[in-house]
């Protein structure tokens, strides 16, 4: 059944994280968490909250041999944390991001060798996911506003890699906020990626401003209809700031996806 989740790193910012995940749980949402090295994992595990996804690595990159080994090593550690939190999805980016979201290894052109190494690295990651019983996800990002220089940020590139690896241990984290900034054509993108069974989480925020659905230019009720039409039953997560009141923002998110018969 489709599960609604909210990124605990972006709402209820006046409270400690542990209280944010509890507030989300009380409101019926699972939580999305970023860098677990910054959080008290045992306290989160004891909180009773549900976790939809978390960052699935600490360091590393897809595109060179040394970075790939580091990515695999820290992804393996992340699977242990995921087990403690009972968190089924672990998120990856084309390269590590710093505290400002900037790529640790920026690249403004992706070469043939980079594509091949990324494919091999992701194949290893997918195997790790299957062994650990979790799904790693490669997230599309945007280079124009939030993550300049991130490799494989375009949804089309992310989807091509996930499709090529073709393993249940690796799926796409389809971030519609980033895709709207980078490429648009969201309905067709959603129909194609989700319809092919390649998406494990759909993340949402509106453009511009990255606030809750309904505050910008994206027609989220139409996206919800597409998700229902293709029978999506994965996670839908709001990775957005609250434009005003936090409770109102998460209710607007819930309402945007309420028409789905899977909910
Ligand atoms: O910008 C995003 O979507 C991220 O996941 C940053 O970690």
Automatic annotation (TrEMBL):
GO molecular function: hydroxypyruvate isomerase activity
Active site residues per record: 139 (proton donor/acceptor), 239 (proton donor/acceptor)
The protein's Enzyme Commission number: 5.3.1.22
Enzyme class: isomerase
Gene3D superfamilies: Divalent-metal-dependent TIM barrel enzymes
Keyword annotations from UniProtKB, A to Z: Isomerase, Pyruvate
Domain of life (superkingdom): Bacteria
Domain Xylose isomerase-like TIM barrel: 41-245
Family matches, as InterPro entries: HyI-like, Sugar_Epim/Isomerase, Xyl_isomerase-like_sf, Xyl_isomerase-like_TIM-brl
Ranges in coiled-coil conformation: none
Record family assignment: Belongs to the hyi family.
Protein name: Hydroxypyruvate isomerase
Highest classification ranks of the organism: Bacteria, Bacillati, Actinomycetota, Actinomycetes, Mycobacteriales
């Amino acid at each position: 059944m489709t599960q609604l989740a909210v990124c605990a790193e972006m709402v209820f910012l006046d409270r400690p994280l542990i209280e944010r995940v509890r507030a989300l749980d009380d409101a019926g949402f699972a939580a999305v968490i970023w860098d677990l090295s910054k959080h008290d994992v045992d306290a989160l595990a004891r909180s009773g909250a549900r976790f939809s996804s978390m960052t699935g690595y600490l360091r590393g990159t897809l595109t060179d041999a040394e970075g790939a080994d580091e990515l695999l090593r820290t992804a393996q550690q992340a699977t242990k944390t995921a087990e403690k939190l009972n968190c089924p999805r672990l998120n990856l980016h084309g390269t590590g991001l710093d505290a400002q979201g900037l790529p640790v290894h920026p690249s403004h052109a992706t070469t043939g060798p980079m594509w091949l190494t990324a494919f091999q690295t992701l194949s290893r990651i997918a195997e790790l996911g299957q062994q650990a019983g979790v799904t790693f996800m490669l997230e599309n990002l945007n280079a124009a506003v939030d993550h300049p220089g991130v490799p494989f940020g375009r949804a089309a590139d992310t989807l091509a890699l996930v499709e090529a690896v073709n393993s249940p241990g690796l799926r796409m984290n389809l971030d519609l906020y980033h895709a709207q900034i980078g490429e648009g054509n969201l309905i067709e993108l959603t129909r194609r990626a989700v319809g092919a069974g390649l998406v494990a989480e759909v993340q949402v925020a509106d453009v511009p401003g990255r606030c809750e659905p309904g505050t910008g230019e994206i027609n989220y009720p139409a996206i919800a209809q597409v998700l229902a039409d293709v029978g999506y039953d994965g996670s839908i997560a709001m990775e957005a700031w609250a434009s005003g009141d936090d409770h109102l923002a998460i209710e607007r998110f819930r309402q945007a996806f309420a028409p789905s018969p899977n909910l």
